[in-house]
């Protein structure tokens, strides 16, 4: 998935990048998102990929589509994760389908699913301290995508 299809929160000069498969209705995803500003201050770039766990044609899917179709996707994601309703023009769900299929290919069964820049799976919800420790210790052999 290309970065322009993701929702990205990044410091000016990131020292680490993580990719997070997320669902706007997931409680742990919401909790993780509440730490994004702190992660950015610590030098971590967070790249979100949509993964509405309930699949196509569901309420969660529609919410994710509203977020990914919004003019300001970062603001829309933040509002959706706070439980607010996000209304935007329909733009199609091709990006959602791509994110969902990628997650399915990885065997994801939950969100958030966090990956390092090298594509190594490092876990579900992590506090900023836990995430930083894992990323700093990682030599690219932290783990493989779950199956």
Write the layout of secondary structure elements.
Layout lengths: L6 E3 L6 E7 L4 H7 L2 H6 L2 E7 L8 H11 L3 H9 L12 H13 L6 E4 L4 E3 L4 H10 L10
What this model shows, in words?
The protein is built from six helices and five strands. A hairpin with a 4-residue loop joins strand 4 (113-116) and strand 5. The protein has a single domain (3-137), classed as Glutaredoxin. With 147 residues, it is α+β, with helices and mostly antiparallel strands. The protein has a five-stranded mixed sheet.
Key descriptive features of the protein:
five-stranded mixed β-sheet; 5 strands; Glutaredoxin; single chain; 147 residues; globular; disordered C terminus; alpha+beta; 6 helices
Question: What's the gist of this structure?
Answer:
With 147 residues, the chain is α+β, with helices and mostly antiparallel strands. It has six helices and five strands; from the N terminus they run E-E-H-H-E-H-H-H-E-E-H.
Give the N-terminus to C-terminus distance in angstroms: 19 Å
Number of domains: 1
Strand order of the largest sheet: 1-3-2-4-5
Q: What class, by secondary structure content?
A: alpha+beta
Rg calculated over all Cα atoms? 14 Å
Largest sheet: 5 strands, mixed
Q: What does the oligomeric state look like here?
A: single chain
CATH hierarchy, class: Alpha Beta
What order do the helices and strands follow? EEHHEHHHEEH
How many distinct helices? 6
Helix content: 25-40%
| Strand count | 5
The residue-averaged pLDDT reads: 91
Which regions contain 5 or more consecutive residues with pLDDT less than 50?
139-147
CATH superfamily: Glutaredoxin
CATH-derived architecture: 3-Layer(aba) Sandwich
Shape field: globular
CATH topology: Glutaredoxin
């Amino acid at each position: 998935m290309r970065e322009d299809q993701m929702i990205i929160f990044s410091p000016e000069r990131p020292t680490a990048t993580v990719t997070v498969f997320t669902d706007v209705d997931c409680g742990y995803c919401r909790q993780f998102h509440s730490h994004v500003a702190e992660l950015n201050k610590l030098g971590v770039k967070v790249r979100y990929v949509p993964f509405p766990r309930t699949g196509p044609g569901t309420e969660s899917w529609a919410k994710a589509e509203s977020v990914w179709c919004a003019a300001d996707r970062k603001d829309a994601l933040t509002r959706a994760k706070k439980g607010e309703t996000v209304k935007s023009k329909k733009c199609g769900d091709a990006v959602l389908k791509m994110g969902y299929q990628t997650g399915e290919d990885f065997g994801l069964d939950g969100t958030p699913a966090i990956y390092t820049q090298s594509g190594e799976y490092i876990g579900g919800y992590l506090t900023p301290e836990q995430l930083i420790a894992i990323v700093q210790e990682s030599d690219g052999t932290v783990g493989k995508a779950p199956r």
